[in-house]
Amino acid sequence: MTVLDLRKYRIIEHILAMTQEDAIADIEQSVGLPSFDVSSATAMHDGGKSSQSFASLIKKSAQDEPSPSLEKKEKFWEAIKPIRKAVSIEEMIEEQNYVPMDEETMYSRVSELEIEEPLEDLLATLD
């Protein structure tokens, strides 16, 4: 990651922490973005249950002004997910496509590690 990338992410984090609409509108205007569709914003704010995702909203706003970095922007916004108030273990397992490891595979992989230290010593290093 370059210094420029780090600076960009720092700015993004700062923007995400902002709570004043006017400040965000000023930033949008200063970088030449078209006005944001407020009705689309309310669709995003329903806990992630909307049929519209961040990525689709970005695509919609970017249609007016396509850029070479559009694909990067789409990937970024696809990674951003609204925070949910609650999530179950079952939902997390499904979303992350978790497949448990069978016992035979686990012991096989552990033996490949060739760990010689006693278990007590290994556990003591966790403190």
How would you describe this protein?
- The chain is mainly α.
- Helices cover 59% and strands 0% of the residues.
- Helix 4 runs antiparallel to helix 5 (70-79).
- The two termini are 32 Å apart.
- The model has no long low-confidence stretch (mean pLDDT 78).
Average of pLDDT? 78
Order of helices and strands: HHHHHHHH
Shape annotation: elongated
Distance between the termini: 32 Å
Class by alpha and beta content: mainly alpha
Poorly predicted sequence stretches spanning 5 or more consecutive residues: none
| Percentage of β-strand residues | under 5%
Q: Helix proportion of residues, in percent?
A: 55-70%
Q: What about the largest sheet?
A: none
Tell me the number of strands. Answer: 0
Report the C-alpha radius of gyration, rounded. Answer: 22 Å
Q: How many H/I helices?
A: 8
Question: Mind sketching the topology for me?
Answer:
Layout: H1 3-17, H2 21-30, H3 38-44, H4 54-62, H5 70-79, H6 89-95, H7 103-113, H8 119-124
